[in-house]
Amino acid sequence: MITRCLFVLFSLLLTFQAVANEPQKYSETPMMDKPLMERYVLDELKALRTEQQDLERRLTVQITDRELSVADKSLNYSNITVTYFFYIIAGVASLVALVGWQSLKEIKHNTKEMADKQLSEITLSYEKKFSILERDLKRKSRIITENNREIEIINEIHNLWLRAQSAQTPEQKIETYDDILKIRPGDLEALTHKADAAMEINEYHWALSICNRVLEVDDHNGHALYQRACAYSRLGSEEQAINDLKLAIESSNSLRELAAEEPDFESLRGHSRFEELIDPTETA
Fold this sequence. Notes:
Layout: H1 2-21, H2 23-28, H3 33-99, H4 101-165, H5 170-183, H6 188-200, H7 204-217, H8 222-235, H9 238-251, H10 255-260, H11 272-278, H12 280-283
Helix pairs in contact: 1-3, 4-5, 5-6, 6-7, 6-8, 7-8, 8-9
């Protein structure tokens, strides 16, 4: 039908175009041909309208039938569902009647007891976990606090070491080393540097005492042995100075070159053991 409509419309279009393109020729056609053409077009339009109405009627009938079919199926499904629902209710009611209200109360009571027991166990379990977690958090918080304090101490000591390096006089260095020892008592490095500063102000006995304190803790401390050797050399104890210098060089071979240019060892120059220590190849 659609093809037929297109054909009629196309014929009309061709007719109008022909009339528009050839007005003179169309005016020469007999007057009797025009009513025939119009009659043909009107008949075709009437037939199209009739077919369109038939198509609408058939579609309406089909849609109505389908809606009725769907409504019927829905009603049937609802009827079956309600029936099954009432069957289930009847079955449950029969089961309750068989078991009895007393059994239902017992079931409720037992269920409550079991739920309370489970809740108690879960509560205890979580209490233990939270207790462990709280203990770990406290321990970690304490460690973090201690680490922060240690970092602050390290930064403060680092600043004091920088201040000691920039100090102009041995007295200022000793004062800075004392500040380090107040923060961290028994710091061996600070003690050995303090002994070095004491040697610079000719406090040889004081330097010797400080070195002995260090060597009581670490008897292989090369820096303390070297400073004590310097103190012994200044105090005239040559053998003790050479013995300490030997131990210092054995712990750190870099001290050999330092000893060769050390002013505190002037009294040892020419001593065979001392010369052998500072230049073993020459003795060989």
